[in-house]
Amino acid sequence: MNATTPSLPRGLLVVMATAVGIIVANLYYLQPLLHQVRHDFAVTTASASTLMTLAQLGYAAGLAFLVPLGDLVARRRLVVLDFLAAGALMALGALAHTFVLFAACTLVIGVVSVGGQIIVPFAADLAPRAYRGRVIAWVMTGLLMGILLSRTVSGLLAQAAGWRSVYWGAALALMLTAGVLYRVLPDEPARASLRYRALVASTFALLVTSAPLRRRAWYGAVVFASFNVLWTTISFHLAGAPFHYSNAVIGLFGLFGVAGVLAANAAGHLADRRRTRAATVATATLVTLAYGVLWLGRASAVGLALGIVVLDAGMQGTHITNQSVIYGLAPGSRSRVNSVYMVCCFLGAAFGSYAAGQVYAAAGWTGDCWLGAALGLALLIPAAGEGLTRRATRRTARQERLAL
Predict the structure, then answer these.
(1) Among 91, 332, 341, 373, which residue has the least CB neighbours within 10 Å?
(2) Domain containing 194: what range?
(3) What distance, in Å, lies between the first and last C-alpha atoms of the chain?
């Protein structure tokens, strides 16, 4: 794709993609550190794993009540303020010395880490229709790199200077990014005049009135749940027998998710060619198969790495396909469409994290693999059924035309 257009020059697209990665990383720094946080605060595995649930519930709340403001106020101002708030909360998290206070900070960090979900529809609005899927894929590549590098940087920094240094570093990065965004994001014309309550109500009304949005919201919720089954408990698995890996090594496992970047770009191209159903079935199949690989390779670093590659490819491919579909549903309400979709995704993520912690405490890695595979099937079966239903509908329509 030639990313340079009159409304979206390449440099601006790179800045937006980078900013999305920097702020979404707030949700994932903890994943390779959970075993150390558990030790430092002297809490159980189940209690430590609830931190990820709190972060994702906070993120869902931010998506529900902050992201819709992108259809009401200037997104440039909203994004900058959000990055500043996120930086302040990360600094507060670094200072927390009780588990209750740290858990509260984790919840609010999730709420204010939604700036990327304001930037994504902003980029979609600036992109020409013919390139929208690929522009979304570019911005989402920044998000994926933020997720991947957050785990690796988190593990390396924690190994060198303790897990609190991760939070201090993130706070600095967010503050600096806020300054850059203030300078480079374009101004917008006046937004539609709506009361805030009506704005939020209209956001969730979209879920009631749009069947394609409901379908894609279900796919998003299930794939995020399955994804978080792995990443909520993998640090416990890798810190224990037979691996006994350090924070730095655990963080490096995040790099195996680079397959998700490749899948995101492939899904963007398929979406621009209207191949969304085929893409969804293919990526849902990868999500389901990944947990078989993760179970078979449970005692092998190579086997776990392969399972991560397959899962990340399936998850990110599904997500990009979903976004390419939903951004074409209501062009004047993309922030609200994105908001309701991502709320469903992160409610699914919160469920996945909570269920994974409970299942891991009771049944270990094998139990979590069964849980992840079941969620994969909850994605694959309706995705495959959608294609069969549409083919049957077209066949019936052809037969009716012939009968006439």
Answers:
(1) 332
(2) 10-403
(3) 45
- Tell me if residue 328 falls in helix, strand or coil: coil
CATH code for the domain in which residue 73 is found: 1.20.1250.20
342 closest CA partner among 114, 109, 91, 106: 114
d(CA 175, CA 83): 7
What is the maximal distance between C-alpha atoms in the chain? 77
Q: How far apart are the C-alpha atoms of 16 and 30, rounded to whole Å?
A: 24
> For the chain, what percent of residues have pLDDT higher than 90?
54
Q: How confident is the model at residue 402 (pLDDT cuts 50, 70, 90)?
A: very low
The verdict on residue 2 lying in a domain is: no
What is the residue type of 78? L
Reading the block at residue 62, the tokens are 């931010």
As a whole number of angstroms, the distance between CA 174 and CA 213 comes to 32
Residue 102 domain-assigned? yes
What pLDDT does 70 receive? 82
The count of structural domains within the chain is 1
183 assigned to some structural domain: yes
